[in-house]
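Q: Structure tokens for this one, please.
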Amino acid sequence: MTDASATAARRPGEPALAALGLSAPDPDPADTSAHSFPGGGRWRTEIPSCEGPEALAVVLKEASRLDVPIHRISQGSGVWMLSDAEITEMVESTGERDIELCLFTGPRGTWDIGGSTRTDSRGAGLRARGHDAVAGCVEDAVRATELGVKCLLVADEGVLWTLHRARVAGIIPADTTLKVSALIGPVNPAAYAVYERLGADSVNVPSDLTLDHLTEIRRVSGAPMDMYIEAPDDLGGYVRMYEVAELIRRGAPLYLKFGLSKSPGIYPYGHHLRELTLATAKERVRRGRLALDLLARHGADGDMAPLGSRLPGELQRFETSS
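A: Here is the predicted structure, written as tokens:
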């Protein structure tokens, strides 16, 4: 890979535009994130919406064919939608390749009997409604970690804090990482810092944040950030591939998530969605290859974190004793 520290990355279209007298202002060094992943590197990769062992096998085969490096694979339907045998198979397959597997905890407000999420205001969204919903998320967390899952995806601040406390108390393994869903992602630096202190090890921000928003966040928090380079339609359908080098410069340490626009939702997954799920899983890997090729053409493909790295480094936390 190109050593990004040796030469500045070329911006899209820069030589041609400069020849036409349309050069853009030089990037402000003050906007560059001062943070990186522990062990080195400023970006990692993630393939989302990998809903079971069969989809995982498709992703791994396509990643090998296209030479797409993968740090993390995540699933969106939830722990409760997988059998013990399916979880074990996914843990073993990712473990053989030193890839982090992240499964979603449930239940969620958008799937239960509450009607407020179907109103124009969208109510409480995916958050866990009531004690029993929190308990269900904890049940999923305990079950998944006992089967070897090391990363849990959460969509509720209370669940996040509860699982962080469970981690500190030894109820789930201390090296379990907690990832905040894009569906409750923070949109300002103060909120981002709160999620970090509640126990988040990586925080998925909405893909419509501006570059300046990322710089604002990085001035208050070094917690790893997750961002869809291409977002699914239910998250806006944004395609920000040509910004990927600048997203890394501003947002590092950053997980590049390769989603897919113009595709139907697949949560909660079942066999009735098999063909769609396998086809979209394969295409997400291809989208990743396209983004990585673009980084290489711009001389910005250096500083990838080592494959197999998963921990977030030292982060700020609220006290759990009180």
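A few notes: The two ends are 48 Å apart (CA to CA). The beta strands are 43-47, 72-74, 100-104, 151-154, 177-180, 202-204, 225-230, 254-258.
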